[in-house]
Amino acid sequence: SVVSAWSSLAWLLHLQLEPREAVALCRQALERAVGPRAKPLPLAGQAHVLLGLIAYDRDELAPAREHLVQGVELSRQSGPSSGAMQAAFTLAWIQALSGDREAALATASGTRQAASQLNLPLVDAYVAGCEAELALRLGSVEAAARWGERAGLSPADTVQYEREGDYFTFARLLLAQDRPTEAQQLLDSLEQYAQARGLGRSLLTAHILRAKAERALGHAAETLASLEQAAHLAAPAGYLRAFLDEGPTVPELLPRVRHAVPAFVDRVLDAFANQQREAAAPSVTAQPSLVEP
């Protein structure tokens, strides 16, 4: 349908770091994907998911949460998709950011249980990688390492599209395990993969992880060069969370590349300071959650 085509094109634009055009297409899709009494059709799920992921990348967490909840619930009616799974795990991370670690783990667990009922090995593998990613973000390197042992990945692999997310998680795991040389080897492949396909969003993450690997190896000039490349890519799209989600090291290094895109770097640093303040304060705000996992 036209709605699916618009949503798919919008997804591609997001991956190419063109969020404004992507948002405009998603809005068109939502206007078209309505049934009787203006009730959203399941087809609207993909557009809501993407609007949520774009809002998340821009560090607009409240609208991100609203779109992701709607997207996941509508997508449940039309069958499994990697987008809906990514949305559910992004929701889990937003819950963790708001101080509710238990809710985050419950969302992840519910998503895994729902996926396992489908009996689709590719879906199970995708969800396992997402769970490992969440474990890393929550500081559980051991849980992620157990996934790494089962996943059958190697730093020398050629990156395949279907497992792109797994390879980024694996690179983060290697860094968390203090294996920066192996991470560097894998990031070579990830950067080549992203550049060859024009996937700016993936290249952005690869550059940030490259900066972390170079820093661990004591390569100061290479660290700042990678971080500057990342800042140049992210600034036009306003994608702050790419930096905020890679741990405190990255925002702490950003002032040293502020000259590249001063206004954008200042926004990231302000968001980082706000995140630290919110993490230190108890959360009392009730967060909307999924009706069912």
Provide an overview of this structure:
With 293 residues, the chain is mainly α. The protein contains 15 helices and no strands. It has helices at 2-15, 19-32, 44-57, 61-75, 82-97, 101-116, 121-137, 141-151, 164-176, 180-197, 200-216, 220-237, 241-244, 249-253, 262-280. Helix 3 (44-57) crosses helix 5 (82-97), helix 8 (141-151) packs across helix 9 (164-176) and helix 9 packs antiparallel against helix 10. The longest helix is centred in the C-terminal third of the chain and has 19 residues, at 262-280. It is globular, with a radius of gyration of 19 Å. The two termini are 28 Å apart. The model is unreliable at 284-288 (pLDDT under 50).
